[in-house]
Amino acid sequence: MPTFFRIVAAQLTPRLGDVAANLALYEAEIERAVRDGVDVLVFPELSLTGYFLKDMVSEVALRLESAEVRRLREASRHVALVAGFVEEAPDFRYYNSAVYFEDGEIRHVHRKVYLPTYGLFDEGRYLARGNRIRSFPTKFGRFAILICEDLWHPSTIYIAALDGAVVVVCPSSSPLRGISDGAVQDDNARYWEALNRIYAQTYSVYLVYANRVGFEDGVGFWGGSEIVAPDGTTVAKGPYYEPATVGGEIDLARVRHHRVIAPVIRDEDLDLTINELLRIRGRPREGGELPAEALEKAHAEARKTKGGEVREGKGVEGRGTGSVEDRAEEDRAAGTTRPKPRARRRVAAGRSK
Description:
alpha/beta, 34% helix, globular, six-stranded mixed β-sheet, single chain
């Protein structure tokens, strides 16, 4: 497996809903990449179909066995690539997907997990959300793909890094929001650039961010694709607001070096995280209602304890939902002392002594 390879983000201007035109753009970039000796080519989010599709989603969606996707599979015999398009699943659901092709095969499909449905975004109205995050093997090392909004949620890259990813690819369609404070770039760009560096350094990964440019339905996209090294330095940076080919060298020795001097991944306590998340998930929801699964567990726990009772919205009474240590900590925080088990049984039986 090579530890040194070249990766390129293709900063395109796709046409909304015109798959044929966008496929031609893809193939021109693929031809250029092959000519330039590129190893991995990354296209932006939904760049094969367009982003603000709305009711056109079902018209432009592609199945993984479609003719267009077969052409990309064939092209990947010459250069590995990440393509972004609306995927139609066999059950007729539509996903915002990014697909990794290598050596004539589909090696991985990531379906966007977090669909922005606020402000100018409306993905949740037209698309189904993915339900998993995985790293995956390539001939260049383990990659992970997170699509645009996915990366705004810290849990996604945390999972990807702990799953072994050394390169995180982020296809994006990030729109303009406005410029403030006399900056050169859009406010959205500044946020992304800070985020990319923090994540790359925190998890000792290469972060490859491929954003599009151009306009759709009156909304502009700022470009600025980039490759960030594990120490937070910029390997390559594309221009704002115009098409470009943004390429740089990936040296996995830099991942190794940064993980030696900052062993965050090595020292991460996965069990601690899981246990605390399960504890948080089991808490009553706002308003006092327990989640259904937690409520069932609480019932089961109560049945094991004589006299235990579960009341909807109040958790388990007579035993408590936490561990002995948790309950003791709660007592200390509240400045109270619980009666000992023998005394509690007397109270429950109507005896005060």
